[in-house]
Amino acid sequence: MPKQIHLNAFDMNCVGHIQQGLWTHPRDQSPRYTDIHYWTDYARRLEAGLFDGIFLADVLGVYDVLGGSPNAAVRGAVQVPVGDPMLLVPAMAAVTQHLGFGVTANLTYETPYQFARRMTTLDHLTQGRIGWNIVTGYLDSAARAVGLTGQTAHDDRYDLADEYMALVYQLWEGSWADDAVRGDRASGVYADPARVRLVHHHGKQYKVDAMHLGEPSPQRTPVLYQAGSSTRGSRFAATHAECVFLNGQSLPGVQKIVQGIRAQAVQHGRAGSDIKVFLGATVITGRTDAEAQEKFAEYQRYASSEAALVHAAASMGIDFDRYDPDEPIVTDKSNAIVSNVEAMTRSAGPQWTRRKLLEQMVVP
Q1: Domain boundaries, the chain
Q2: pLDDT over 80 at 271, yes or no
Q3: Could you give the percent of the chain with pLDDT greater than 70?
Q4: 105: which DSSP letter?
Q5: Taking the domain 8-177+193-282, which CATH number applies?
Q6: Which residues, in sequence order, are CB contacts of 117 under 8 Å at separation 6+?
Q7: DSSP H or E stretch at residue 40
């Protein structure tokens, strides 16, 4: 029996999302990202095109690893300026009926109690169409922005995330009983206090003694996305994720990651098939292959190599300005997105260079 393919659009509340430099193309509309009509029109088009959802990326902090400065990121609009993706969702939901919304939110810098209410609110306003892409962050600039000297170690961030999840599950699933809300106008009782309980969580990172502020939403717990495919990230995904997002890479590389995550899911008492995998891809269409190739060549003329390096340097935690174009990159233990470094090593070999990186990144 053929499998159904699920399609998500992939975007971000900014000018320069993934294909850096293309905002300079005369047909590009991304500088309208501050216009709510840009997003509502976008949502209508996706629903008319039978997309399952839109996956909204996000980042806290600025990309300042390349050359030790944010100047190139600001100059090239490399995911800065950037708006809050959550604020787009209610407007897009209001003009659609079926489109889903996977929104990225960094759990490291927001308390579970506040975040749980925000997601419950979005689940109500979308009538159960909200998903959460769970991220732990990877930028020291984000840590400095909230008063820290730097981010915690990669694997330690996932340990914190496991406790975070344990707490938000309790808030979403265990505070309000299904029949707590009565809405009885005659008696004046909206909800039965006996059916609402306090959550008591005293963990290593978090302490909460409180009831959840939101009444049960259609899903309670949103659909959970996860994009980490490092060893520790895969274990986290196998424990919590319903959907896993992977960057485009070789078929054997994708197969190995997917098989590993699903095998770990089984070890956690889940079925491997419970986890859906979404693979990132850049699709360029045309009425003929020649027309599509011509369009591809046109886009490449607007792509920015500098801006692409800004993005790559931050995501991998490597300052590529320190290397000549054909000098092998030293990939010490990264505290950024470990899976990005691993993916590049798999695709280009252990002695990859800045030139090889750019060949894969500029409108791949």
Answers
A1: 8-177+193-282
A2: yes
A3: 92
A4: E
A5: 3.20.20.30
A6: 212, 213, 214
A7: helix 36-48
